[in-house]
């Protein structure tokens, strides 16, 4: 059974880098059938797509975050990571890692982690 | 940029049919998925590619998409169906886009 688990600091100082890791069990992130991505949800607000990565392929990210986002895969650990530079209070959110199905015409996240709250504050 | 619009809230009586809509320019030309989120829980996809149900999702959930509007229909709504519902689509220029969410209340 597929499981995704986010991990990382729950508190990040403004201007520093927000870093999270997603550990995947029950599937290989080396599979080219799926993208691996990140979605966030500010407290009390809606969902916002951050980006995703296909093993051995391209990275996709939200236009408004593209300059600050890095998503990478570590196949040896079956993990993928998110780095968001120059964090501000607006980046405070629950962050979900996801497994995504994508083609040229559709995109959806078929599995989600439990989510982890990251607060950006001094 | 591509945007999706949802009504903030919908109320329905138990056993009745709930319809949640999502509008966007020429949305019918794109695929839509629907996501359900209960308070404090991670989201779950209930419909993908406009009308397909993932395994484990009850048959009372159905979807359609035409013109500028996609619709999620819940037949025989139950209290467990309460929560927030988000539509989501993909646009080449805007990437993955979510609607603002609709809060479903089963009275």
Describe the structure.
The complex is a heterodimer of chains A (122) and B (107). Chain A is mostly beta strands and 122 residues long. Helix content of chain A is 0%, strand content 53%. In chain A, strands 2, 4, 5, 6, 9, 10 and 11 form a seven-stranded mixed β-sheet that branches. A four-stranded antiparallel β-sheet of chain A has the order 1-3-8-7, with no helix packed on it. In chain A, a hairpin with a 6-residue loop joins strand 4 (35-41) and strand 5 (48-54). Chain A is globular and about 40 Å long. The relative contact order of chain A is 0.31. Chain B is mostly beta strands. Chain B has no helices and ten strands. Helices cover 0% and strands 49% of the residues of chain B. Chain B has strands at 5-6, 9-12, 18-23, 32-37, 44-47, 61-66, 69-74, 83-91, 95-98, 102-106. In chain B, strands 2, 4, 5, 8, 9 and 10 form a six-stranded mixed β-sheet that branches. The N and C termini of chain B lie far apart (36 Å). Chain A binds chain B through residues 46-49, 60-63, 96, 101-102, 105-110, 112-115, and chain B through 1, 30-31, 33, 35, 42-45, 48-49, 54, 84, 86, 88-90, 94-101.
Please report which band the strand proportion of chain B falls in: under 5%, 5-15%, 15-25%, 25-35%, 35-45% or over 45%. Answer: over 45%
- Beta-strand segment tally of chain B: 10
Q: Note the run of SSEs of chain B as H and E.
A: EEEEEEEEEE
Q: Structural class of the secondary elements of chain B? A: mainly beta
Oligomer: heterodimer
Q: Radius of gyration of chain A, Cα only, in angstroms?
A: 14 Å
User: Average pLDDT value of chain B?
Assistant: 95
Biggest interface reads:
A-B, 21 and 25 residues
Alpha-beta content class of chain A: mainly beta
- The rounded distance between the terminal residues' Cα atoms of chain B is 36 Å
The major beta sheet of chain B can be summarized as:
6 strands, mixed
Please bin the fraction of helical residues of chain A.
under 10%
Major beta sheet of chain A, specifics? Answer: 7 strands, mixed
Tell me the overall shape of chain B: globular
User: Per the principal axes of the C-alpha atoms, what is the gross shape of chain A?
Assistant: globular
- Treating each run of at least 4 consecutive H or I residues as one helix, how many helices of chain A? 0
Let me know the number of strands of chain A: 11
Fraction in helix of chain B: under 10%
**Terminus-to-terminus distance of chain A:** 39 Å
Tally of contiguous helical segments of chain B: 0
Content of β-strand of chain A: over 45%
């Amino acid at each position: 059974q597929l499981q995704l688990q986010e991990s990382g600091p729950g508190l990040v100082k403004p201007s520093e880098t927000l870093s999270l890791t997603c550990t995947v069990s029950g599937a290989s992130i080396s599979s080219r059938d799926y993208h691996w991505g990140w979605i966030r949800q500010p407290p009390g607000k809606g969902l916002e797509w951050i980006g995703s990565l296909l093993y051995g392929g391209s990275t996709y990210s939200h236009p408004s975050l593209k300059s600050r986002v890095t998503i990478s895969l570590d196949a040896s650990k079956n993990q993928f990571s998110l780095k968001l530079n120059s964090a501000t209070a607006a980046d405070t959110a629950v962050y979900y890692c996801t497994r995504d199905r994508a083609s040229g015409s559709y995109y959806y996240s078929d599995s989600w982690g439990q989510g982890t709250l990251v607060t950006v504050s001094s | 940029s591509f945007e999706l619009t949802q009504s903030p809230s919908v109320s329905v009586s138990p056993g009745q049919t709930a319809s949640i809509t999502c509008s966007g320019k020429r949305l019918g030309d794109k695929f839509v998925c629907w996501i359900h989120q209960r308070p404090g829980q991670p989201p779950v996809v209930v419909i993908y590619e406009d009308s397909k149900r993932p395994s484990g999702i009850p048959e009372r959930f159905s979807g359609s998409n035409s013109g500028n509007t996609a619709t999620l229909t819940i037949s025989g709504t139950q209290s467990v169906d309460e929560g927030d519902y988000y539509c989501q689509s993909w646009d080449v220029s805007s990437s993955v886009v979510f609607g603002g969410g609709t809060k479903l209340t089963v009275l």
